[in-house]
Amino acid sequence: MSTLKIYRDNSGEALEAVTNHDTIASRLHSIGVRFERWQAAQPLTKDSTQDEVIAAYKSSVDRLMKEYDFKSCDVVSLHPQHPDKVALRKKFLDEHIHTDFEVRFFVEGKGLFFIHDQDKVYGILCEQGDLISVPANTKHWFDMGENPAFKCIRLFTTPEGWVAQYTGDKVADKFPRFEQF
After folding, report:
1. Residue 150's pLDDT band (boundaries 50, 70, 90)?
2. What gap in Å lies between CA 83 and CA 97, rounded to an integer?
3. CA neighbor of 127 nearest in space, from 113, 138, 114
């Protein structure tokens, strides 16, 4: 179940937990983060190709491509047997920003985003069917868990804009990891 937990950034104290999708979307909208549910227009299998996955969500993908002037999209997936899963997880566990949107639609599986806005941290457990769009220059981190299992559509305006720029703040250490969330 998609879940939003809001915390104080300085103490990690939990302030609110929400599982209603509309309420999650509303709370995130208030900090500029888009959160939507998408439905596939055609059935997919575990072996569906990148083109088949994108085609299944074509109307939603096209809408965002036009709205934000995205130039490309792709599909990324990770599985528990991936040989670089530890390094890949570590890469995104520290607070960072991107100069471009970070847009992820969860075709399968789940992942945990944390957004640091002013004096609060918003933990969002995204699951199959969830789209999250983190605006450029927004402080955040992502936890895929010890045994990642997800497939996501990603949208880009430029590949360079998606490179992580770390803030150096260790705020992420105060908050639960994927397994404890």
Report:
1. very high
2. 26
3. 113
Task: Reply yes or no on whether the pLDDT at 66 is more than 80.
Answer: yes
Which CATH class, in words, describes the domain spanning 3-167?
A: mainly beta
> Which structure tokens are listed for 78?
């990770």
CB atoms within 10 A of CB 175: 20
DSSP letter assigned to residue 22:
H
- Where b means 16+ CB within 10 Å and e means fewer, 129-154 reads bbbbbbbeebbbbbbbbeebbbbbbb
E strands of the chain, at which residues?
Answer: 3-8, 14-18, 34-37, 72-78, 96-97, 102-117, 120-127, 130-134, 139-143, 150-156, 165-166
Question: Does residue 160 surpass a pLDDT of 80?
Answer: no
